Amino acid sequence: MKTKSLYLETIGCQMNVLDSELVLGQLVKLGYQPAASAQQADVVLFNTCSVREHAEDKVLSRLGQLKQAKQQRPEMIVGVIGCMAERDPQGITRLMPHVDLICGPGQLNHIPAMLQAVEETREPQTLVGREHSRKLDPAQRSLQQYDSLEALDLARQLQPGTNRLQAYIRVQRGCDKFCTFCVVPFTRGPERSRPPAVLVDEARRLIDQGTVEITLLGQTVNSYAHQEDDRRVTFSELLSRIHDIPGLQRLRFVTSHPGDFGDDILQVMRDLPRMCEYLHLPAQSGSNSVLQRMKRQYCIEEYIDLVHRAREYVPDIQLAGDFIVGFSGESDAEYAESVKLVQHVQYKNIFCFKYSERPGTAAARNLPDDVPDELKRRRNVELLRVQEKIAARNNHQFLGRTVEVLVEGYSKAARKAQESEQSRGAEVGWRRSDQLVGRTRGDHIVVFPGGPELIGQLFKVQIIGSTALTLHATMQTGPVTSSLLTPLTLKH
Ligand code: SAH
Ligand code: SF4
Ligand code: F3S
Q: For ligand 2, atom 2, which residue shows the shortest CA distance?
């Protein structure tokens, strides 16, 4: 049998990155090989995001580019999977009739069967809706009722040779918060926490295969809670259990909702040595009236109190934030509160988005999208500029410090140089001038000279230069080892 080639492109958040990895694992096991480009592939899948209109437009444009290839090779299979497939399957079919497969994020384990059905029947296949069921109350949303959802994560394929240095684990699905601007509760369904025993087992298998850094994923990861026999396992307890698996060197989690962030999590971050000093804490706005219209369920005083508590418990903690500018009715004064918050918190970095009205959300139904696009753009550029200055100043303070980095690979510049050598047919080898890239525990990107043997190691480097985005360093000492491995030692 001829092997089939697959092109899988991912747009969206870490959940989608993980979903794509799991889908790819399934298909590689069935003999699919990576295709050089979408145009040449036997199967093209786009794993999509609906969070902003721009993300959907990108997919529509990529699909449009495939129309001709599909006409020339009708046997080619074009699929749309993930959040956009869930949000509007009919819309995709209407605009892009050459799409053969539409599969929501709760059905991804059915993709092999769907591909087979397309091949056999030449009829388009659509599977959506599983993530939608909110009929069950949270206590009843057990593993069995979501067996199909769980199948993909449970069957996680660990392929030898793939980059397993860092891995994501989904601890929670969906979201129950229904912020008025957000489409995620509609595409990913109700919030469900996966059982701790399953998660510990998944982590152990990854670590056995060489993973040293794990990031736990959830839309509001800190609200994780799972009923185990007659007691409730909280997020801080889950962190401790995963943290204690021998061989793990770093543990992170994203994204936290500022509304239910207890001190128990901060205590764990303070006391357990492999917990990274990093917190992604989306604020969305610095104005209480905007937060209320967004239905974020916290006020700015609570947010700032959490930032202060986090810094009390973990003094060197690095904070990242998300902001939306130009949300319905955002006045100059309300926007100025966001600028004030960014200046007050001193984030390591922020993600800033222009408000994009999403069909079906409460904001789309009840609140006008009335801030002109040009004003949204100006606020976006300005807020990012404010943050850039803060980051440049804060990064400058790292000069001379020694930090621990996990070496992830070659820097972008080194990879580019290698690719251009490769395309000229030259033999690619490591040169003394090559730069490696690593990350600190606080998620700073550090670039420094070094050889490929260091990739995957934890190293101490000394910071000798900085910009708003990057730290530059030289190697200082040998690898960091025993103190981070078992037996456990408490930081304080
Ligand atoms: N669960 C996370 C965020 C998920 S979406 C949380 O609660 O914070 C990632 C980010 O996209 C959000 O933090 C928000 O800043 C942004 N976002 C979500 N919906 C948006 C919209 N309609 N327009 C612009 N940005 C949006
Ligand atoms: Fe969206 Fe709000 Fe849920 Fe985050 S918490 S995924 S912003 S609804
Ligand atoms: Fe986008 Fe879906 Fe993630 S809408 S942000 S890919 S959960």
A: 179
